[in-house]
Amino acid sequence: MFIFLYGPDTYRSRQKLNEIIERYKKTSKSGLNLNYFDFKKDSYQGFKDEFQTISMFQENKLAVLENAFSNADFKRKFLKDSKKFADLNNIILFYEGNEVPKNDSLFKFLEKNAKFQQFEFLTGQKLKSLVKKEFEKYHCHISDIALEKLIEFTGNDLWQIANEIQKLATFKAEQKIEKEDVELLVSPKIEADIFKTIDAISSGDKKRALILVHKHLEKGDSPLYLFSMINFQFRNLLEVKDLVERNTPYYLIPKISNLHPFIIKKSYQQIGRFTLGQLKKIYQKIFEVDFKIKTGKLEPEAALDILIAEI
Q1: Is residue 301 pLDDT above 90, yes or no?
Q2: pLDDT digits (tens, 9 = 90+) for 87-133
Q3: Domain boundary residue, one of 72, 95, 118
Q4: What is the pTM of this model?
Q5: How far, in Å, CA of 112 to CA of 96, rounded?
Q6: Which of 102, 185, 296, 306 could serve as a FRET partner for 47 with CA atoms 20 to 30 Å apart?
Q7: Are 120 and 7 in contact (CB under 8 A)?
Q8: Residues 279 and 242 in one domain
């Protein structure tokens, strides 16, 4: 039996992997027939020898295989011998924490012969629902506005979200979590390249801004997440610029804006490159593009290119 778990959302895929392993352990008490292979260092022959060894405990075997797709020697030999492993009493589980090329020979084999599940990054209501369920594990609830702020600060990085949930749940001890709690305890996840992108836009270097954005996309970052971070940062710039234009002392800006001190510091460094009027026009353009994404008139990745080209 073959199982195939893959995709960039390693938080959920690891949960599924652990669930399968724990279920296996309940039925196979010896623990001697559970094996892990990482084909960045392990060999096909080592896997083959171990998996084909007869168990003295008459238990089914479970082999977890990571990085098999990056090992050409493993793929070639495994596909040649695949019929030998198609034993329903034993399980070979392929685990890949990235996207896998659909034209890959091993992918085509597993697509046809394995039980498989793809783990894409969650967005929108699916992400919100999962986060709410995670809070419920700690007997906590989060307000809708606080949930929006948490996702705004963390994107769809479930590893970071899980850490922040634990922190917030400990702080509130089964009480309802509000927006102010998120702003107090959660550090916004703003990649350095997002600030570099804003710098490139402000200096008129749209080509560099596009290159930086596409580096994120190539790395597997969600275009919706990138768009939300650009939106988030320009909104911060507009708010800080407006306060500065009204001669607000720097030390009062955190209290008035409710922005995280880190965000204020980074925004303060960038607002000199924009007039208030420019920031208002840019934010209006972001609003228009966001509306087109939500109504299905624009794909998120195309929207990023259009936004950078037009602001």
Answers
A1: no
A2: 667 899 999 988 888 899 999 999 999 999 999 888 889 999 999 99
A3: 118
A4: 0.64
A5: 17
A6: 102
A7: yes
A8: yes
The CATH number covering residue 218 comes to 1.20.272.10
Residue type at 281 in one-letter notation: K
Instruction: Provide the domain count of the chain.
Output: 3
> Residue 2 pLDDT > 90, yes or no?
yes
